[in-house]
Amino acid sequence: MCKLEVNIKNSEKNYPIFINNRDIETLKQTVLDYIGEKNYIVVISSKVYKLYSSKLNFDKHKIFILKDGEKEKNIKNYTKILQFILKHRLTREDAVIAIGGGVVGDIAGFAASTYMRGIKYIQVPTTLLACTDSSVGGKTAIDTSYGKNLVGTFYQPDAVFININFLKTLSKRQFKSGLGEVVKYAFIEKSCGCGEDLNLMNFLSNNKDKILNYDVLTLKELVEICIKLKTSVVNQDEKESGLRKILNYGHTYGHAVENYTKYKKYTHGECVVAGILFALNFALKLNKIDKEYQFICQDLIKNFDFTVIPKFNKNKILKIMMTDKKASDDAITFILPTGFAQVKAFKFSPEDIIF
Q1: Looking at the annotation, which residues are catalytic?
Q2: Do 188 and 249 form a contact (C-beta atoms < 8 A)?
């Protein structure tokens, strides 16, 4: 088992991240040993429950099953989870255990952060996207009709348990959705302030076939690299006041596409990749990068054969971007590449954004 630590600057809320490829049947006892003799409820993805309920073997009366899909991350389900917590009389010393992808982690974490002004919660990510990104860092939220993640909190988990074996049953599309966030880390690595030279771009190029064939040890190393980069950023800037904004590379445009297509047509990772390609084009036109670097990035993206997303109505996309939580004073914040594996935040008025 690999153990990493989140040690946030000027914060007492530090926690471990455990990465392993043990038998999934060991997970329940590992998690319950960690929380001690406390009461708990489990919020679990319906797909994960169907595939792994017998191996996980949690008390059925303590399980809240959440349907899959971004559309389930809504205020109605948030209320249902709170009612389930109330029914089980959880106290501030008890815990919410989130088992699933980013949707489960976000909404269960939001419920845990608001119940009694905050109780313990444990992240057990089961998708590549959640393992490499959303399970770490403390962003919790639900979506509204006005946009994604507009209602939420910064609330760190008490621990994250990553078991690589969950990834073996992901569909190709969901697996590649996670790879959308992974390539994002490759393009921002040198801006993360990590004390280690991890060379994620080279790792992705050299291990493409092993990654696409779900090789467990390769995926374990890949997850570890991404988590090191994420924790490096979060440790320095927990609440996105500065450096953490770079984690939104590809997300301003990507979130707008998700909203425009009502979260039904494309996965989050597919939209992030579309956002990265948009940012590369935008940065090239502003002379912040050269054609050679754009080609290097595009070539890495082509290696993983992501879904190609068509262009949409410019005015409608801009209107959605203006409702993004990172927009302010009639300006839209974009994270743009500025050099090899380097990015910076820039603000633009809508009329200055080049499509």
Answers
A1: 117, 139, 181, 230, 240, 244, 248, 251, 255, 268
A2: yes
